[in-house]
Design a protein that fits this description.
With 431 residues, this protein is α/β, with parallel strands linked by helices. The chain folds into 3 domains: 5-55, no CATH class; 69-104 and 204-388, Rossmann fold (3-Layer(aba) Sandwich); 107-201 and 393-430, Rossmann fold (3-Layer(aba) Sandwich). It has helices spanning 75-80, 106-120, 132-144, 178-188, 203-220, 235-250, 270-276, 284-287, 291-297, 316-323, 332-346, 352-366, 385-391, 411-430; strands spanning 5-8, 15-16, 33-36, 69-72, 84-89, 92-93, 98-99, 124-127, 148-153, 161-162, 169-175, 194-196, 226-230, 259-265, 326-330, 375-380, 395-396, 399-404. The strands form 5 sheets. It has a 6-stranded mixed β-sheet, with helices on both faces. Bound molecules: pyridoxal-5'-phosphate and zinc ion. Residues 104, 106, 132, 230-237, 302-303, 351, 353-354, 381-382 line the site of pyridoxal-5'-phosphate. Homotrimer.
């Protein structure tokens, strides 16, 4: 194969070149995958995740030093009675080289996504999230100058901040809930030149997150036996599985896929329920009853995705089944204690979602679901907020445009976004 990579559809088996393609051209209900020319992992002398450039769907790289950092745990490992615990940390922790200043592994997704889009000349990205994803895309926009349209509920806009000025973000606030802003974001993508970021369908997002598995396996010198992560969409779990399959094919890291141990935060645990019931589809009435009330009660709200890529071919369910994995439902109280234990033993504060993963590992160790000699990779998906607040500047992202729920994307509003796009095109031409 001459190209660095192709996209392959696991539904129909077709391979084709990438045009920032999110769906199979034949319409299969399947997640496209990257297939790279290099079968063995070659490390590049580049910063951050671009060390793993050969297994990212990009040609160049960004000069950003925000990658996952891996180390062998001493304190937490002793507490859990584990001999081989590799922590892979994504967040802000300068003593260990952690430079993700918005404090979550969403920066692993945002970097290759922004670069892939730029290289394919596909247009301007649109993202609907006021959580860690929205913050990460604003930050990478601030660091690279890449234009991004972010659409969020007005009430959540205060959660978007960056540590560098982000002059190329068009923040649109919608006076409504998340569904209203997602619907409005979709409308904005009807403008020529605006492209939806794509979520789990975006191979750059998954392969960016897959660098956690690569980094952890390199640090330990082998694939882990078990991989622990808290999931909302489960994209990180799919990414870990895909990266592990590549390492198996490489041949130097072991031949067995790590079992995925994925956790959600009670009372909102749709994937745990669907898994335990053996369901291919998530059935809202069974798997997420009273969704709104349940979502309001979890401590880690980044784990409350209502439409995870569960039963789709190549999705979370396939990843769990292929790896012999399991799922955990974790209470707020258990997550809180686990977060405190982590802060005491490893000396960094955690994102509430990462605390859920630590709680699942605690339970697995207690119940003998992982043995003391097994090699464990703990994906600490976010942390270091307290350190970041002490060390770094914080710039709130200011709204460019405010709309009402259900307001049509037409007239003045549409013109305002079009003018912003024209201005951005001018900025790009002058750069
Ligand atoms: C998004 C997020 C998760 C869940 O990730 P998915 O793999 O997309 O489900 C976990 N932890 C943190 C800190 C996150 O931001
Ligand atoms: Zn197909």
């Amino acid at each position: 194969m001459r190209e660095k990579y192709l996209l392959r559809c696991p539904g129909c088996g077709r391979s084709f070149p990438d045009r920032y393609t999110l769906d199979c051209p034949s319409g299969c209900d399947a997640l496209l995958r990257t297939v790279y020319r290099e079968r063995q992992l070659i490390l590049r002398d580049l910063p951050g995740i671009f060390r793993y450039k050969d297994w990212l769907p990009i040609e160049g790289h960004l000069r950003l030093d925000a990658g996952p950092v891996s180390y062998e745990s001493v304190g937490l490992a002793r507490e859990l009675g584990l001999s081989h615990l590799t922590v892979v940390f994504s967040g802000y922790w300068p003593e260990r080289g952690g430079r993700m200043e918005t404090c979550s592994f969403k920066e692993l997704e945002a970097q290759p996504t922004v670069l892939r889009l730029r290289e394919k000349g596909a247009g301007v990205l649109q993202v609907s999230s006021a959580g860690n994803t929205g913050r990460a895309f604003c930050q990478i926009s601030g660091l690279t100058g890449a234009p991004v349209v972010v659409v969020v509920p007005a009430a959540a806009a205060g959660r978007l901040w960056t540590t560098v000025p982000a002059a190329n973000v068009c923040l649109i606030t919608v006076d409504g809930d998340y569904s209203d802003s997602i619907a409005f974001g979709r409308e904005v993508c009807s403008l020529p030149g605006v492209v939806p970021e794509g979520g789990a369908k975006n191979v750059a997002r998954r392969d960016g997150m897959g660098t956690v598995m690569l980094d952890g396996a390199l640090a330990a010198g082998r694939l882990p036996d078990c991989y622990f992560q808290a999931v909302g969409s489960g994209t990180g779990g799919i990414a870990a599985w895909e990266a592990a399959e590549r390492l198996v094919a490489d041949g130097r890291f072991g031949l067995r896929l790590p079992a995925l141990h994925l956790s959600q935060n009670l009372p909102f645990v749709p994937m745990v329920r669907a898994w335990e019931a053996g369901r291919i589809d998530i059935v809202p009435a069974e798997d997420m009853p009273d969704a709104e009330a349940a979502i309001a009660r979890v401590s880690a709200d980044v784990l409350t995705n209502r439409h995870p890529p569960w039963g789709v071919r190549g999705g979370v369910r396939d990843a769990l089944a292929a790896s012999g994995g399991r799922m955990y439902a974790v209470s707020n109280g258990d997550a809180w204690s686990a977060g405190r234990l982590f802060a005491e033993t490893e000396e960094i504060d955690l994102d509430p979602a990462a605390a859920v993963a630590v709680a699942s590992l605690l339970r697995a160790a207690e119940e003998g679901l992982v043995g003391p000699e097994e090699h464990v990779l703990l994906n600490v998906t976010g942390g270091g907020y307290e350190r970041a607040a002490e060390d770094l500047d914080r710039y709130p992202v200011e709204p460019s445009l405010r709309v009402r729920a259900g307001e049509a994307f037409a007239g003045d509003v549409r013109d305002a976004v079009r003018d912003w796009l024209t201005e951005q095109a001018g900025v790009a031409a002058r750069a």
